[in-house]
Specification:
The protein is built from 18 helices and 31 strands. Strand 3 and strand 4 form a beta hairpin. The structure holds one RNA strand.
Amino acid sequence: MNHGKNVIHNAQDLSGKGLKRKMGFFVSACGWRVLRYFATPMRWSEFFIPTLREAPADAEIASHRLLLRAGLARKLSGGLYTYLPLGLRSLKKIEAIIREEMNSAGALEVFMPALQPTELWKRGPRFNAAKKVMFKAISSSDKNLNDTELVLGPTHEEVITDLVANHLNSYRHLPKNFYQIQTKFRDEIRPRFGLMRAKEFIMKDAYSFDADDAAASVSYRKMFAAYQRIFSRIGLQAKIVEADTGVMGGSFSHEFSVPCNIGESEIVFTDDGSYAGAIEKAVSRPHPRKAQAAPSDAPEKWPTPGVRTIENLTKKHGVAACDQVKTLVYIADSKPVLLLLRGDHTLCEDKVAALGFEEYRPATDAEIFDAMGAHPGSLGAVGVCKPKVAGIYADQDLKDEKGLVTGANEDGFHLKNVDMGRDIVPDRYLSLRLVQEGELSLPNEADPVGGKPLKIQRAIEVGHVFKLGTKYSQAFGATYLTQEGKSEPVVMGCYGIGVSRTLQAVIEQNCDEQGIRWPFAVAPFAVVITLLDTSLTPHALSLKESLEKSGLDVLLDDRDERPGVKFKDADLIGFPVRVTVGEKSWAAGGVEVKLRTEKTARTLPVSEALQVICGWAKAS
RNA sequence: CGGAGCGUAGCUCAGUUUGGUAGAGCACUUGCUUUGGGAGCAAGACGUCGCAGGUUCAAAUCCUGUCGCUCCGACCA
């Protein structure tokens, strides 16, 4: 790419007045004196903003296209992006908000290595689960690779717990919460949507260490509240949903999710907010069954030749799906198990994890016939026995149901009058099914009555808080001595925010046909001054200075471009406020000010314009 | 990793079926004109057509292999 013009300007700037004038120190909210990050040239002509009229063909969703078109980032290769100056400003603003809230919640910032010894992971409790996504990093100068193999860290529970095991030894040292903002590496099989799912991404991760479960709950609630403040300050509408703990392990978890139709997960919620859950966790009241159970003495076998599906049984024999039992065979830790669901319900595979298997998968037809003596479509749990089948697990909505129909374990036959508890005795009842849109919520703490209709929406997860328990502390020997001198494992929590993903989620949630509509808090610049006549440059500069004195960051569009180009670029990048300084409005007594979110501008004298803009910024 | 598709200028794409020595629009450079919503004219610069083999007098085009990327699925902040 030839950016000769910009390069020359930057070179002049370095050698001359520009940078020196803008360097300075400011006192950040955490009280440190920090080299002023925003010591960048604030003239467009000196900046580097390669906007694109057309988006690269591989950008599919709005935020990804805008990320590229507005000159915020560029792709190096699949899932790897360079942040350009403009995008980096927004990213740093998001990080600053996170830092402030984490610090004020009492967390301590650390910075852990991205390179981690494989040996550390092998000592931990989830090496096998994690290695799917890990990048290997091998020192090429080392001949004995086995001993020195390194990985690029996909996350840092192992590192921090190892640290803590060595240093938090007494109840007097607790509680503690450490966090960092670090690059994580995950070998995503399919990176997509720009920063939404990348191989390398920036994450804020925090880890809390407490003496007992009650104290850990306090830490959890602190982080939960900090997250609410963070997303609210960033300007992101994040829905909070009960979540599954997945491979992290642990007991309790919430996701902060941004609804958007390209989301990778689904969330279930009621309109009144009384219930919200991730799809792999959500529960509901099922639609009532059609048939009422008639008392019966025993299951009755009847021929159903050629019937292989639930739908078929409904059509040919008039048995409603909800009156049937769906019998699924899975191979869990190498043994066949039965999963039972109501005929009109769908299995949620993630929920099978609650049974504690290390791995599980649907059985093949051959495995099914071997275990059951019949083919799929004629399966049932009546009369099956161990050890052929290692376990029978039924969805909780089948509990106490009577008068059901299920396969007879003989091709071409079904059983009716089947009662749960009498004819089928599962090892355990639990929630196994997927919630369906329109079902009603169950009673819960927020709503003791329940019965609200449930909606389902795709969402992108930007934050996740876990109460981990002692899984990692036990693995790494992170114990402390109680007041009584007893050794106990510390109780952990972990808390993540996808920082780079959050940046793009803000764009996804704040854009229109013209471009981005940045919230003030994370806009790369709060104000753009669109200068249309060079004769007015001194006035534009003094306006810029006044705005900066009020604490706003301002970019002066001093490019030698036609007005249309400047307006289009301003809308595309999406500065919250645009001030137009041109002869037309100057003759009318002032400048034009306009919010990106509003259609029309208003012409005001400079002093009034200042007030209006500051008012907008304050109100945001 | 399974299925599908695409690699030609910085970006969007044509040219590939039927082999004949590289194109358009935008962007870039220079000049003139223009100047309140992505200007006009003129001149210019930019490509070993993803890479490696093969077929042929001749390959962007046909064949083989390979690499990269994108889309749909299983996984994740």
